[in-house]
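Hi everyone, sorry if this is the wrong subforum. Our group has a chain we'd like a structural model of before ordering constructs, and none of us has done structure prediction before. Sequence below.
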Amino acid sequence: MDIEKRAAILAVVEEALEGRRLLSHPFYRRWSHGELRVGELASYAGQYRCIEASLPGWLGSIQSCAENPEVHELVQRNLDDEVGGAVSHVELFDRFAVAVGAPNPASTEIDPATRSLLNTHAELVASSATEGLAAVLTYELQAPEISASKAAGLRSQYGVDGDAVTFWDTHAMVEGDHASWTLDAVVAAGGEPAVVATAARRAADAWWAFLDERESAAPVE
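Answer:
Right subforum, don't worry. Here is the predicted structure as C-alpha cells:
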C-alpha cells in the first residue's frame, strides 16, 4: 500500500467535507437535541431507505468496472457486511423505519434532493471506479460518528431502542472498517487526488442538500 498516496487521498476528501460535515447540519443537530417534530423521523426514514437500498448496487457496479483484483476484494468486504450476514443492513434499517412510522417503501415518493443524491452517486459510479469509491468514502468517513449520534439521540430523546436502533449501532461499529477498505480501494484503483476531490465534493454537496430538504420539510408549529 502506498502510504503517501493514501494520506493524499484522505486529505482531499477531508478538504471536500469542509462546510459539509453532516453532524453540523441543523437537521442532525435537532435530532440529537430531541427537537424533531412529529413525522420528521418517519419522513427521513422513508427517504434514507432509498439510499441504503441502493448502496449494494453501487458497490457491485464499482466491482464490475474495476480491473484491479485488490479493488474487487476490498469492495467485496463491504458488500459482505451489507448483504452477506444473517440479516442484511436494509432489513436492519427497516426495523428502524417501522419503529418511527415510515411509510411502506413501495408507496414512498422519492423527493427531489433524494433523487439528486441517488443520481449523483449513480453517475460517479458509472464514470469510474475511483469516482464511485470517492463518493462512497465521503459518507463512510463520517458514518461512525453520525451513526453513534443518531443511536444516542433515538434512545435519549425519542424513546426508540432495541431492534429499532440496531442499524445505527451496527454502523457505528463497522463503518470505520468500511471507510478504511474504501480508502485502500481508491489507492489500489490508481485514483488521482484531483479526480477524488471533485467526486467527493459532488457527493458531499448532494448529501448536504438531502438534509436541507429534510429541514425545509419540517412542519411549522
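For your construct planning: The longest helix spans residues 40-65. The chain has a mean pLDDT of 95.
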